[in-house]
Amino acid sequence: MKLLLDFFPILLFFAAFKFAGIYAATAIAIVATVLQIGYLRYKTGKVEPMQWISLGVIVLFGGATLISHNDTFIKWKPTVLYWLMGSALLIGQLVFKKNLLKSLMGAQMDLPEDAWRLTQWSWVGFFAVMGCLNLWVAFNYDTDTWVNFKLFGGMGLMFVFVIAQALVLSRYMKTDDAKDPS
Fold it and tell me: N or C: which end of the chain has fewer CB within 10 A?
């Protein structure tokens, strides 16, 4: 359910774009993100900082798109989010000497420090590359191709990256056989 809720604005953006164009899709994405945040706040009582940032970015860049009637702003939105996430991880590591991924996921995974470091740096690199790739598609292809890439390419690459990361990290995972020699 959480995964569907996370992708709710993206799916609505895609559907609205196919039926009504980029400006209607942008307006719907703004409304959907506001509703998503409102629902999360009502249901769980809290909203993650990255979700607040995402709301701010969609309202800012989506609003600029609607006011100026220029789709350049909405095309920058994914890149800004990718780079903000990557920058947060990078600044956490370099400035505060803190692995933010370990802070967020340490309770779910028991990894040695070098594995956490590898994971952190791979996500920083992934977000940097995805931001550049979004800009390349956005400004070298038509808007329809960019929207398709945003949904299928972006999510597909994220899925492949997460699977590859799981395969790399699996060597650090302890199995039940390793814990119980009997």
Answer: C
